[in-house]
Amino acid sequence: MTDLFKAFIILLTGVVLFFSGCVKLALRLSPSLIPSFTEAIFEECDPGLSKDAIPANLKILEGLLKNDPGNKRILTALSMGYAGYSMLFIDEYDPERASALFLRARNYGIQALGDKGRVLINPGVSKLDLQDILGSLGDQDFVGLLWATVSQNAWISINLDKPKAIALLNNTEACLKRILQMNPNYLYGLPYILMGSALSARPPMLGGNPQTAKGYFEKAMEISRGKSFLVQYLFAYYYAVRVQDKNLFLKLIDDIAIGEPHDLKDICLINSVIQQKAARLKKKVNELFI
Fold it and tell me: By three-state DSSP, how is residue 122 classified?
C-alpha cells in the first residue's frame, strides 16, 4: 500500500468520523494524517488536477479544524495550503484575491503559534520584545512561523502602496532572520529564497538590497543543486529584473525550461507550475528589460 493511498484511507476515515462527532479523537490517534495529506498535495505533478482539488481539500481541513480548533497540525497545513495555492495559481492573475488568501494563510500560521503569534503581526511591538518572542520559538513552531512569514511577505509585496503593509516590514524581516537561524535548508533552501526575494523586491528606501539578495539566491541554488525551479524563477523575477541583468534572466528561465520537475518528487507540483510560469515570463522579456 502506497503512502498516498494510506493517507487517503486515513483521511476518508477521518471524514466519516467527522460526521459521527468523533473527529477530534481520530485526529489525536492519527498524528501523521495531516502531514501525509499536505505531502500528497505537493507531490502531485499534474497542475490542473491540483488546481481543482486543493480548494476542496482545504475546506475539508477547515471542517476538521472546527472540531479541534487548537490543532497545530491542521493550522500549519492550512497556512501552507492557502499560501501555496495562492502563490502557484492565483497571484499571477488576480492579485486582489491572492492578497485575501495570503492573509488567511498568515492568520492560520499565527494561530498555530498561539499567543506568541499575535505579537508578530503587531506593528507597535518593540524590536527587543519581538526578538525575545522569536527567540523563544522552538522547533515545534518552525513550520507555523515559516508559512505565516511566507504569507505575510507575499501580502506585503502585493500591497507595498498601503501603510499597513509598510508598517509590518520590520516584523517580517525579523521573522525571516529567525527562520534562517532555525532551519535555512528547509524545502531546498526556501528561507534563503524568501530573504533573497524580499531584499530584491523592495526599493532601497524600504530596506531593499539587491546585491545582498544575490548571495541568498546563490546559497539556495547550492542547496537545491538547481533542481528546485522556485529558486531560479524568483532569482530571475526579482533580482535579475531589478538589476536589469538580461543574460542572467534568460539563463535562469532557460534552465527551468530544460529541467525535469519529477527530479524532486516532494515538490513536483511546485516545479511543474513554476515551469509553466517561467515560459510565460520569458514572453515578457522585452517589457521587463529596457
Answer: coil
Sketch the domain layout of the chain as residue ranges. Answer: 1-69, 72-183, 186-290
Question: Residue 17 has which C-alpha cell?
Answer: 468520523
Provide the 3-class DSSP secondary structure of residue 94.
coil
Alpha helix (H) ranges present in the chain?
A: 3-19, 23-29, 33-43, 47-67, 72-85, 95-112, 115-120, 127-136, 142-158, 163-167, 169-182, 186-201, 210-224, 229-234, 241-242, 246-258, 268-282, 285-288
What CATH architecture does domain 72-183 belong to?
A: Alpha Horseshoe (1.25)
- Four-way CATH pick for 186-290: 1.10.10.10, 3.30.530.20, 1.25.40.920, 3.40.47.40: 1.25.40.920
Angle at 61 between CA 180 and CA 34, to 5 degrees: 55
Summarised one tens digit per residue, pLDDT across range 229-249 is 999 999 999 999 999 999 999
pLDDT in tens, 83-129: 999 999 999 999 999 999 999 999 999 999 998 998 889 999 999 99
- The contacts of residue 68 (CB under 8 Å, 6+ apart) are 23, 24, 27, 28, 74
Q: At what angle do helices 47-67 and 268-282 cross, to 10 degrees?
A: 130
* Prediction pTM value: 0.86
Distance CA 68, CA 25 (A): 9
CB contact at 8 A, 146 and 108: no
CA 126 – CA 171 distance, rounded (Å): 10
- Which grid cell is 40? 500528497
